[in-house]
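Example pasted here:
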Amino acid sequence: MQTVFKNIKGDRLIWAIVALLAILSFLPVYSAASDLAYDKYDGNTFIAFVKHFMHLFLGFAIMYGVHKIPYRYFKGLSLVMIPIVLVLLVITMLQGTVMGGASASRWIKIPIVGVSFQTSTFAFVVLMVYVARYMSKIKDKEITFKSSILPLWGPVFLILALVLPSNFSTAAIIFLMVLILVFLGGYPIRYLGVIIGTGIVALVFFVMFAKLTTGPLHVKVTTWENRIKNYSNNEDTKADYQIEKAKIAIASGGIKGVGPGKSIQKNFLPQSSSDFIFAIIIEEYGLLGGFFIMILYLWFLFRIVIVAQKSDTIFGKLLVLAVGLPIVFQALINMAVAVELFPVTGQTLPLISSGGTSIWMTCLAVGIILSVSAKREEIKEKESVEENPLEILSETI
């Protein structure tokens, strides 16, 4: 065990926050998975618990392996991975998966291991690294809109076009996170206005096209419209069933909660172990438990800002923000949906919700952040050796 801790590099507090979130996820997932267990595992909730453990175990293995890679290598890897990601998204779309009459082509099945993988989540991480690379590359150059269209916005809009038909919320978050990143990277605001306008026009044309069809796209767009209308009009419809049950769970929790495993609404709330896990946490652990989880994510945000600030390169700074901010943003979106501040989006709570792809991609992103902070530690160690060579030599002897 001591050898493992010696090999762990990077920001120790980020390691602690991520480990704590993972540990705290077990009881809520085990409790909330009862409904899922009756559908898939003949009522055996322990199988859901073991599955969640295996997802986290593999996730931490990914995080450990990635944090050992010098972060400068991610520049080249993002260039290589963009075409691969585009191919995977095309394959996923061509599968034509339909659920409830709507397009649901989000997952691709890996034949050898029989595991389903959500390609849009992987594409999100790769794209953010790619954008960080591009912005660091042009940092000290004069930026023109014409020169940035193909190398920067070409991959962004291609990925958005492939993700949007099956997952509007993920496409919207990707677009927003890219805009924030390029703004932080110094991209001219006047050009951003053009990009935002182009994105809105493209979305309008997509919705108009979908409404003219009679297939899965039409059903999907109608679902988006209904969710927004129901949210804005505060109407009680069947589509609001999840939100109503989530609010009942939150109201039942009070300040201290009903206790671990004693949730009632987990038996009625769809997606209680994934999209609405936060409502179950508040029901079982109260507002105190909910605030504690929120504080952990805000603490994580604070640490990634510090890691970005201390990075020795522009690419390192942008890379940390590129993969770190979406984790916190997704967590806040998930919590906001549970308390009806946002319409239902289908976004999970990072490192806490059940689901392999979400956990693995979050751990991949955290591993990249730790790789950047590990480089800073390496530089400090070298500086320390240069300042006190005799002291280091005496300790070695």
Q: What stands out?
A: Confidence is low (pLDDT under 50) at residues 98-103, 392-397.
